[in-house]
Structures are given as C-alpha cells and as structure tokens.
Amino acid sequence: MLGSDAATHSAKQRLLVTGVGGLLGLPLAMLAAQRFSEVVGTTHSTSIDIPGVRTTPIDLCSPGAIERIIDRHRPDCVINCAAITDLERCEREPAEAYAVNRDAAQALAVVAAARDIRLIHISTDAVFDGSAGPYRETDLPSPVNIYGDSKWEAEQVTLAADPRALVVRTCLFGWSAQGNRSLAEFFVSRLEAGDEVLGYTDAFFSPLATTHLAQLLLRLLGDREQSGLLHLASRDAMSKYQFGRNIARQFGWDAGLVLARERSAAAESTLRGAQLALATDRARDALGEELPSVSEGIGELHRLHVNGHREHLRALEPDPSKKESAHACTDR
Ligand SMILES: NC(=O)c1ccc[n+]([C@@H]2O[C@H](COP(=O)([O-])OP(=O)(O)OC[C@H]3O[C@@H](n4cnc5c(N)ncnc54)[C@H](OP(=O)(O)O)[C@@H]3O)[C@@H](O)[C@H]2O)c1
Prior knowledge:
By secondary structure, the protein is an alpha/beta fold. The protein has one domain: NAD(P)-binding Rossmann-like Domain (Rossmann fold, 3-Layer(aba) Sandwich), CATH 3.40.50.720. The chain contains twelve helices and 13 strands. It has helices spanning 25-32, 65-73, 87-92, 94-114, 146-161, 183-192, 210-221, 240-251, 281-287, 294-306, 309-316, 321-325; strands at 14-18, 38-43, 54-57, 77-80, 118-124, 166-170, 172-173, 197-200, 204-205, 208-209, 228-232, 238-239, 258-261. The longest helix is centred in the N-terminal third of the chain and has 21 residues, at 94-114. The protein is globular and about 55 Å long. Residues 322-330 have low confidence and may be disordered. The site of NADP nicotinamide-adenine-dinucleotide phosphate (NAP) has 32 residues, from strand 2 and strand 5.
C-alpha cells in the first residue's frame, strides 16, 4: 500500500514545507527528512526541533517574507501546509484568515511559477457545504464558513498564479506535537481517561492518517504531470460517531463511552457541513492504487501510538507553555 516515492526524488533536491509545527506539516517534514538532501520547515508561533529539518520562524504574511525565504533556501519543491485552520478563529478574525489562507498561498504560487518550483498547496473538504458528498474535483464548492471560503479562494488564486501547481483537497487525523489538533486526539484524550464523549451520527467525512497522507504527497511531488485539483482522502466515508467507536475498539477501550448525537442539534452545526466525504477516483488513477480506508488509518494511528510516536512528537516542542496556548481540534 502507498507505493514508494524513492525513485521520484533526486538525492540533491531541496524541499520547503510551511507550517511544520502543525498536524500535517510535522509528519510530512519528518518523512521528507529521510528522502531529501535538505528540508527546510517554517514555523510561526510554535517552536519545534525536528531531526534532519532546518526550521525557521516566519510570518508568511509579512511583506517580502516569502521571497526572502525562497531566495535564502532555493528549494526545488514547496508544500504549503500553513493555514489558520481554527474555524471559530476564522469567523472572529476574517482578515487574518484570508491573509494566511489565501494571500500567502497566492504569494507562494507567484514565486513558485516564476522560479519553476514544484508547488503542492493543501486545501480542504471544507470548501464544500456538505449537502451532497462525496464530492468530486469537478463539483462546485460552496463554503459555509470563512475558513472554507478563504481556502476556496486560495485554490483559485494558487492555480491562476501557477497552473502547474497541484492543489490537494484533503481531510486528516493523527498525532500532533500539541496533542490536541485532530479529532482523533479529541476522542483518544477522553476515551483513555474513561470519559464519555459525543460522536455525531449525521456528520460524515473521509479522513486520511497524516502519515499516510505525507507518503502520498511526497509521491505526487515527484510527478509534475499531476497538476490542478486532486482529492486525497480515505477511499470510504464514516460518521464521526463511528470514527470514535472504531478508535475505542482499536485501542481496547469501551466503545460504549462514545454516545450517539445528532450534529444538526449542536450549536456548531452551522459552521460545518454534514456530508463532506471526498471522492478519490482521480487520486486512485493518478497513484495507480486505492487510497487507504478510514479503518486502515485508525490502524496506523494505533501502530504509531504503540511505537511511541505520540510521545516522540510531544517531545519535539521545546516550550511546553505553548502547548496550552495552541488551538484545539482544528479543521475537522
Ligand atoms: N486539520 C484538518 O483536519 C484538516 C482538514 C482538511 C484540510 N486541512 C488543511 O491541511 C493543511 C494543514 O493543516 P493542519 O491541520 O496541519 O493545520 P495546523 O495544525 O493548524 O497547522 C497550520 C500551521 O500553519 C502555521 N501558520 C499559521 N499562521 C501562519 C503565519 N501567519 N505564518 C506562517 N505560518 C503560519 C501554524 O504555525 P504555528 O503553529 O507555529 O503558529 C501551523 O503550524 C492546511 O492547509 C489545512 O487547511 C486540515
């Protein structure tokens, strides 16, 4: 499963990953460090030390910052994982949301196109309203919140500036350095404490484990034939209730602690669509294999836990005080 990208990267290639303090950027940078001669990762408010990765703090919105970092490190490829992903924060601070999610993405695409840098930009299932998933790349987005709208605008300005870029819409879960950035961590923290937790029976998604997604992104990075929009998600969809119960079973906890609740009755329901699954036919054809299932992703989450990966990530963030201030459970 998930093939190999070994043949697609030259040993001399340099990769820049933005947002390496985040849920996706961290495992992506860690994997890339084993495959690229040089990996540079940008951080912002999070301070993090990643073996084999040169981290550099940067506000991607500060004038000229993107050109400076590209000039300094001269990457051959860039994967843009930086974003403001906290839905409520995007509603409260729309100017910041559009500045990071759209304007910085556009600035990166302009520089990438001008210098023939391979660019992958990460987008989200939240560009859709969730009324009619699973969604294909050809379906018209209709975001229901500022986050989704800023990400949809980012897709458009990225591809307008750099038509050879690959824009990957995804949904993800995994372990983060902060311990609170994914829906899986939300379920795990409650279930391992023996607490009951609500799971929505009418909210469907198709998330990939971050480590699976990282492998797929590195493969696609080496295939410049792949451009435009691509959905990278699990090959099947699951309700968030079922997701919580499957995590409980996989980790050997009481699945009865996950209580069924209708999302439509919850206060946050207006901010998030209900049927957000992404169709992965195009990705399957591009990669020449099926994408992992949600259950395989949960198996990966457990495998990483058993291998001590969770503690390893948490030890990478040298300033524990930041863990408390980090936003919890973001785009989910
Ligand atoms: N999480 C999900 O479930 C999900 C689902 C679908 C799509 N996505 C997409 O996947 C990508 C990665 O998401 P994620 O979950 O890894 O997000 P995340 O954990 O919130 O990380 C985002 C990163 O962006 C950085 N950042 C924010 N503002 C910045 C700025 N002004 N300058 C430089 N860096 C800045 C943050 O840095 P600091 O932490 O250092 O401040 C953080 O490391 C995003 O494009 C997101 O839209 C995520």
